[in-house]
Amino acid sequence: MKPFLWKASVLLTGALLAGACAGFPLSSTPMPTDTPRVERSSFGELPDGRDAALFTLTGENGMAVEATAYGGIITAVRVPDTDGHLENVVLGFDALAPYLAEEYRANNPYLGAIIGRYGNRIAEGRFSLDGQTYQLATNNGPNHLHGGAEGFDRKLWDADSFEGESEAGVVFRRTSPDGEEGYPGRLDVEVTYTLTDANELVVEYEATTTEATPVNLTQHSYFNLAGQDDGDILDHRLQLDAEVFTPVDSTMIPTGERRRVAGTPFDFTEWTPVGARIEQNNQQLERAGGYDHNFVLRRENADPGELVRAARVWEPRSGRLLTVRTTEPGVQFYSGNHLDGTLDGAAGAYDYRSGLALETQHFPNSPNEPGFPSTILRPGETYRSTTVFAFEARETLAEE
User: Fold this and answer.
1) d(Cα 371, Cα 81) in Å, to the nearest integer?
2) According to the model, what pLDDT value does residue 31 have?
3) Integer Cα distance of 245 and 313 in angstroms
4) pTM listed for this prediction
5) Peptide bond before 384: cis, by omega within 30 degrees of 0?
6) Cβ contact 323:307 at 8 Å
7) Using one digit for the tens of pLDDT, what is the confidence trace for 162-214?
8) Domain limits, the chain
9) From CA 36, how far away is CA 319, in angstroms rounded?
10) I need a labelling partner for 89 at 20 to 30 A (CA). Which of 106, 129, 339, 354 fits?
11) Do the Cβ atoms of 356 and 337 come closer than 8 Å?
12) Cα 70 to Cα 96: distance, rounded to the nearest angstrom
């Protein structure tokens, strides 16, 4: 499986045209022409002595992405504000050891990791497929979460980097053996991170299987566009391209209902501060301790595999704007409700709601909900999914 370089080129061209028309400079500090676009270094050693490589991708305009082969974790995304100042806008550590620490593993927040085989929850870790019932590991109360007790976030991936005229990237590969965490079939997985000179991080997933199996891969970065050490995300403005969400039961499993967001705290169809309604008396907010829900994206007029906008986030002090586009039918908006200050990141403790996640995905518990889009991959088929995280800076949202 090869990295989808043609996709990155198409996305780059469109983004450059959009940026030029809007009049927003990408950065005031272009990269020197002799600077390598990809650098590889050691992030640390696993207990068995294997080295976890760290890849630093650098764009022409100064944006940089750091990702390690352990869990495919994105440890840093450095982007400029309206003054051209670079800050790391994702939560993460600057060495491998904190990701291996017992307190992190016990309260796994999945900072920046590749999630699989199945992102989000499967009720009671159980599903039936082709007349057979499978029992998965249960690691979130009675349910299976984010691939189980030892998901893709805790695996060392094979990795190779690549460079192009207007992009730099890294390809992570691993084989999930038959029976891993209870899943049927051997799953060969490839995840590509590409940084373009349009300040876009393109994440592409590809997988094949030897037996029918559920697959729902995602990326679990937490964003704080003010900078990873700069307070909570409650003043971030959020817009979601979703008029419907999937409410959950008391164990955070979707009920099967698709509920309209209009008139509820879940209406982000217009720019709204994350914290504007997060403390309202609402059963769904109480169950999740805030937002931790799947939003159904508007794909009525989109072809399969076509990118659609899922979300936009703007931080008013820095002016940083994140736009998320995806081929997926849903996005999980998580407001960092379980961050509690016990984890010390690269710039200090990660306190309550100090980052938000936008996990593009198929819906939670889809293997048990025939009314949800299918997540079953069969032999001879190829799973493909793409998500783009595009960054820019704007003084205001007045032009919206």
Assistant:
1) 43
2) 56
3) 18
4) 0.91
5) no
6) no
7) 999 999 999 999 999 999 999 999 999 999 999 999 999 999 999 999 999 99
8) 5-393
9) 28
10) 106
11) no
12) 8
Which of the four CATH numbers 3.30.465.10, 2.70.98.10, 3.40.250.10, 3.40.50.2000 does domain 5-393 have?
Answer: 2.70.98.10
**With b meaning 16 or more CB within 10 Å and e meaning fewer, what string describes 9-45?**
bebbeebbeebeeeebebbeeebeeeeebeeeeebbe
Q: Is 236 an active-site residue?
A: no
Low-confidence ranges of the chain (pLDDT < 70): 1-34, 346-347, 399-400
DSSP letters for 36-87 = -SEEEEEEEE-TTS-EEEEEEEE-TTS-EEEEESBTT-EEEEEEE-TTS-EE
Q: Which amino acid is at 128?
A: S
Mark whether 190 is an active-site residue: no
Q: How far apart are CA 90 and CA 185, in angstroms?
A: 34
SS3 assignment, position 122: strand
Structural tokens at position 213: 């199996």
* CB distance 115 to 133 below 8 Å: no
Q: What angle do CA 68, 74, 77 make, to 5 degrees?
A: 125
Catalytic member of 60, 181, 328, 359? 359
User: Catalytic residue among 144, 146, 220, 293, which?
Assistant: 220
Q: Which two tokens stand for residue 177?
A: 């053996």
Q: Quickly tell me which residue has 């979300």 as its tokens.
A: 311
Residue with tokens 């939670």: 364
CA distance 240 to 233: 16
Burial class (CB in 10 A: 0-12, 13-18, 19+), 216: buried
